[in-house]
Each structure stands twice: as C-alpha cells, then as structure tokens.
Design a protein that fits this description.
heterodimer; A: 139 residues; alpha+beta; 4 helices; 5 strands; B: 96 residues; mainly beta; five-stranded antiparallel β-sheet; 1 helix; globular
C-alpha cells in the first residue's frame, strides 16, 4: 500500500500532523497531492513547547515540512475496502469487454476499421502509409 | 535480487528516525521516497537509569526525509525482551 494512497483515503478524517519544526496541526484532511502537500480544515495549531495554541478555519501545509502524520486507526481498514471495491468493478468490465475486443466492434476506433476492410490507411498500407514516408526536400 | 522494503511489508520493523527516536510497528506500505506506513506502532524510549518506556502511537505515516534506518524485528525475540531491565543511552539526532 502506498503512503500517498493511504492519505488520499484519509480525506475528511481527522489527523495530527507534526512538522519538522515541532509544531503540531490537528484538523480534518481536505485534500493532498503527490508531494504530500495537504489542506486541513478546522485546525488547531500547537507550538513546539505545547504552550501556544492557534485556531484557524483552514490551513495549507507544504509536504516537505512534514515530519509525520498520525491517522485514526480505522483509515487503514477503509483502504482495504477501496481496493476490494475497485478490483470488483474492474473485473465486471473485463468480462463484458471480451467479444468487442476480438471483433473490433463499432465505436472501437482504428482497431475495428483496420481488421474489417481497411478504411483509408487502415492496415493495408493505403496511399501514403505503410512504413516511413520520406519527405521531399528534407535533406 | 531486489533491494526494496517489499520483504518487510506486514512484518514488524524497527525504524530509527533522524532525531534519534526508535519506532517499532508493522510496516504496511512504503514508496520510493521511503515514506512509510506504520501500523500499531509505538515509540521505545531508552534511558540509562530507567527501563524502556513504550509510548503507543497507532497508525502513522512517516515521511521518508526523517527515516535513518529500518530493520526487521524477530517478533519471537522481541516478545522475550525484558524491557523493564534494559538500560541504554538514548540516541542522538543525525548531524547533517
């Protein structure tokens, strides 16, 4: 399981983020990206020594400043459910997609046309196709 | 032979962070940046005059920048450790 996908699954869950400078941010994860930059809402920020507190409706944290994130235990179970749901969805499509793939059915684009009778430039090497065409004057 | 952490996934691992902390937990996932997912983890705080203190942490995502070392732990051996009677100097942080 990838850490960033766990984070994506944890959207809308509360979490604690500790930064490299020791500050901690408690809030709900709104979004995250591939650099671990995160957007939290309803945030409580605590200073390194635990003596100062700030409250803010939202904040944006650059991923590179993060030391670690503490997530609620149930998030890891949510990832397992997502993987199962995704696998099931893809399996259904695979069954249905069998025949059209072999036949190059309607709406399948160049695959179907190439096999059938070859539209212009289909698979038969129509005029100007089939191999590299040398451009004139391009020495 | 592949040199990834793949073989450690779902096993108990001991991580030493750059600030000298020791986190023990189940490695659930990792990526190329060595960001880690540690489940059911706890921090072991060593002391030269008291036994080892275990601070329960839970589910953590540790950013790869902060990881210095990851080692696989023999669970059998680990359960046989008498943490109360272990005395050790705490580690220093990494100097960059």
């Amino acid at each position: 399981m990838l850490p960033l996908s766990l984070l994506k699954t944890a959207q809308n869950h509360p979490m604690l983020v500790e930064l490299k400078n020791g500050e901690t941010y408690n809030g709900n994860l709104v979004s995250c990206d591939n650099w671990m930059n995160i957007n939290l809402k309803d945030v409580i920020c605590t200073s390194r020594d635990g003596d100062k507190f700030w409250r803010m409706p939202e904040c944006y944290i650059r991923g590179s400043t993060i030391k670690y994130l503490r997530l609620p235990d149930e998030v890891i179970d949510l990832v397992k459910e997502e993987v199962v749901a995704r696998g099931r969805g893809r399996g259904e499509n695979r069954g249905r997609g069998g025949p059209p793939r072999g036949r190059g059915g309607p709406g399948r684009g160049f695959g179907g046309r190439g096999r059938g009778g070859g539209g212009p430039g289909g698979g038969r090497g129509g005029p100007g196709r089939g191999g590299m065409k040398k451009k004139e004057g391009f020495k | 032979m592949s040199n990834t952490l793949e073989s450690y996934v779902n096993h108990l691992v001991s991580v030493i962070t750059v600030d000298g902390r020791n986190i023990v937990g189940t490695l659930k996932g990792f990526d190329q940046a060595v960001n880690l997912i540690m489940d059911e983890c706890h921090e072991r705080v060593y002391s030269s005059h008291r036994g080892v203190e275990q601070v329960i942490l839970g589910l953590y995502v540790v950013r790869g920048d902060n990881v210095a070392l990851i080692g696989e732990v023999d669970e059998d051996l680990d359960t046989r450790l008498d943490l109360e009677n272990i005395r050790a100097e705490p580690l220093n942080e990494c100097k960059t």
